[in-house]
Specification:
Chain A: Keywords: Nucleus, Ribosome biogenesis. The complex is a heterodimer of chains A (319) and B (316). With 319 residues, chain A is mainly α. Chain A has helices at 2-9, 33-56, 92-100, 149-177, 206-218, 257-270, 274-277, 280-296, 315-318; strands at residues 11-13, 18-21, 60-62, 67-70, 110-113, 118-121, 186-189. Chain B has a domain at 26-232: Brix domain (Rossmann fold, 3-Layer(aba) Sandwich). Helices cover 27% and strands 32% of the residues of chain B. The mean pLDDT of chain B is 89. Classes of the chains: A mainly alpha (319), B alpha/beta (316). Chains A and B meet through β2, α2, β4, α4 and β7 of A and β1, α1, β5, β7 and α5 of B.
């Protein structure tokens, strides 16, 4: 059967309405552009026909707009656009409830109020156990005489609400740390810390401290050489070029290193192979450049130009 | 000082929830923009690509000087736009002497560049240059057929990547139910050489045939162009693995302690752990019992039980 054969050769993904024919070979030297285009469209038609064959044979339901088919899930794997949703870490209360074995209980919207023998709603207008409705608060032995118990109740409530908000913020922070912040919540840093409050001092590394100490030491009169060092403090690193000066007067019985060093250099310069060591051309250029620079002088526009017409104040006296 | 910010309107909340990472994702949106210079062909390519993907694409008309997708610092603007518009595919067009009619197709993962492929456009034919019967013109937003022909798509890695990117670009939303009368367009991509792909857009004509399956006829409606592969960047392996992860990847866990029997049907076995009545946390709501007292009580009980069981065992 021709249809069965082509299905086996083509790779069809019905879920994506995608078809791929890996076996067709296009000629490397097409006859003309139109011929090539025609060939592509013909091949394309075959592929679309192959998908349609599978598609129209799926079970369909009739609706007002036309036949509706249930597409199978796509088989080609394509990368996601966002990461998979991460599981939310349990909140402090959830951890506590898990430990204690506390189950969530569904609360009713309407509760029976004993004081008025009626059914009232739990939250909202005319609610059960409204804080504002209490007319009389009985004094206890522990109460102070000047304290207003109504104000105290309001204060306590404010504190409880504040604590809850703080806990909520902490829970959201842990969720944000785990990358599982709920989609509609954003944690924003509102402002810089208030001046005068203790900010965390920036932690400086060991090396940086050493460098700074070295810098400070150089500002002393003796360049930090005789400064008292703390136990464990390393001697300062020598800044600048490192010279090794050989002793001028050699030790008894030892070779005169300094003399040898200079003789070596002199020997190289005066030998018959000196042209190989000394690049005479470069040396001449360097000398000439230096001379020219000195001649031209510094083009300092800021430097006050000497007025040659002005005589020196004590010139006559010298004469 | 941190502050919790939540949306004040329902509409804002719905938008945020739509953009949040989900198990089953929405269709990818395309961002179309161009660089400092564009040619006539390139600007019409971008315009027509936008028309083809109307409803799932956003086109920026200003030129962007600091976008260089293949350079390390030149992607920041793209990532910012991707974040703002919630687009995870982009088509960036530019025209330079070295790379004329250049189009960079790229994808994003978590609003960071995932992979890139750069193609040059040759032999572009605008959709206005095609003449056809207007009755068969495809409707906006209809789900297309996508066809690939040529061994190049399997053998050449750049063409393989291009195939994947084009599928992602043209696919649109993944749907469960499809209305068969609404199938009216097809994208035909043919690998005419190891570096060239011929892309064309056709309308579908359904002709009567003897069976339920109609006979398909394709009519070119445009645009059509040749895509010449220039540069590409594949995603690094770790990122690719993470992006390809799906929730259904985990193999089904073997259900333990359940066996099917022909006579008795489905049987399950339940194991009850040893109930240590003394250790179950009971809520003691009486005010006088504080934690130290509670713990002290428990300790006492355990001691008594221990000695009681010992006595019991000794007596046996």
């Amino acid at each position: 059967d021709m249809d069965m054969e082509t299905d086996q050769i083509y790779q069809i993904d019905v879920g994506n309405l995608l078809a791929f024919n890996p076996n067709h070979r296009f000629s490397s030297a097409p006859s003309s552009r139109e011929e090539l285009v025609k060939e592509c469209v013909t091949e394309g038609t075959k592929l679309v026909q192959a998908i349609a064959d599978t598609l129209f044979n799926l079970p369909s339901t009739e609706t007002n707009d036309g036949p509706l088919v249930q597409l199978p899930p796509p088989t080609t794997k394509l990368p996601r656009e966002k990461h998979l949703p991460r599981p939310k870490p349990p909140t402090k209360w959830e951890e506590f409830a898990l430990k204690k074995g506390i189950q969530k209980r569904k609360k009713d919207k309407i509760v029976y109020d004993e004081t008025t023998d009626k059914f009232k709603r739990r939250h909202g207008y005319d609610r059960v156990n409204d804080d504002n409705d209490i007319p009389i608060i009985e004094a206890k032995a522990s109460d102070e005489p000047g304290e207003d118990p109504f104000a105290k109740r309001l204060d306590d409530k404010k504190k409880r609400v504040g604590k809850q908000e703080k806990n909520r913020l902490e829970n959201l922070k842990t969720a944000a740390k785990a990358g599982a912040l709920p989609s509609h919540v954003q944690l924003a840093v509102t402002g810089l810390p208030i001046s005068g409050t203790k900010t965390q001092p920036k932690k400086i590394g060991k090396e940086a401290l050493g460098d700074v100490a070295g810098l400070a030491a150089t500002s002393t009169a003796s360049g930090g050489k005789f400064d008292k060092k703390l136990p464990g403090e390393k001697p300062p690193k020598k800044q600048g070029k490192h010279h090794k000066y050989l002793p001028v007067v050699p030790r008894y019985g030892w070779v005169d290193e300094e003399k040898e060093q200079t003789n070596k250099v002199l020997g190289k310069l005066l030998s018959k192979h000196s042209h190989e060591i000394l690049n005479v051309g470069k040396a001449i250029n360097m000398y000439n450049d230096k001379k020219e620079k000195k001649k031209s002088g510094r083009s300092d526009k800021l430097k006050a130009k000497k007025d040659i017409t002005k005589k020196k104040p004590y010139a006559n006296k010298a004469n | 000082m941190m502050e919790i910010r939540t949306p004040k309107t329902h509409k804002a909340k719905r938008v945020l929830e739509k953009r949040a990472p989900k198990l089953v994702e929405n269709g990818k949106k395309t961002l179309i923009l161009h660089g400092t210079k564009t040619s006539a062909t390139l600007s019409s390519v971008l315009m027509e690509l936008y028309r083809l993907k109307k409803g799932g694409a956003i086109k920026y008309s200003r030129r962007n000087e600091n976008i260089r997708p293949f350079e390390s610092g030149g992607e920041t603007s793209l990532e910012f736009f991707s974040q703002k518009t919630d687009c995870s595919i982009f088509a960036y067009g530019s025209h330079t002497k070295k790379r004329p009619d250049n189009l960079v197709l790229g994808r994003m993962y978590d609003h960071h560049v995932y992979d890139l492929i750069e193609v040059g456009i040759d032999n572009f034919k605008s959709l206005l240059s095609f003449s056809y019967d207007k009755k068969i013109a495809p409707h906006e937003g209809s789900k297309p057929f996508i066809c690939f022909t040529g061994e190049g798509f399997e053998n050449v890695p750049e063409l393989k990547q291009l195939k994947e990117v084009l599928t992602d670009l043209f696919r649109g939303e993944v749907v469960d139910n499809l209305n068969l009368t609404g199938l009216d367009r097809a994208y035909i991509c043919s690998a005419i050489s190891p570096t060239k792909v011929f892309l064309t857009h056709c309308a579908i004509k359904l002709k009567k045939s003897g069976t339920i399956v109609p006979r398909i006829e394709l009519v070119e409606v445009g645009p059509s162009m040749d895509l010449v592969i220039r540069r590409n960047r594949l995603p690094n392996e770790g990122l690719r693995k993470e992006a390809m992860k799906s929730s259904k990847d985990k193999p089904k866990k073997k259900v333990k302690n359940v066996d099917q029997d022909d006579v008795l049907g489905k049987r399950g076995r339940i194991f009850i752990p040893e109930q240590e009545v003394g250790k179950t946390p009971l809520p003691d709501k009486s005010k006088g019992v504080k934690r130290e007292r509670r713990e002290g009580k428990l300790k006492k009980k355990n001691k008594e039980e221990g000695s009681a069981s010992k006595k019991h065992k000794e007596s046996e």
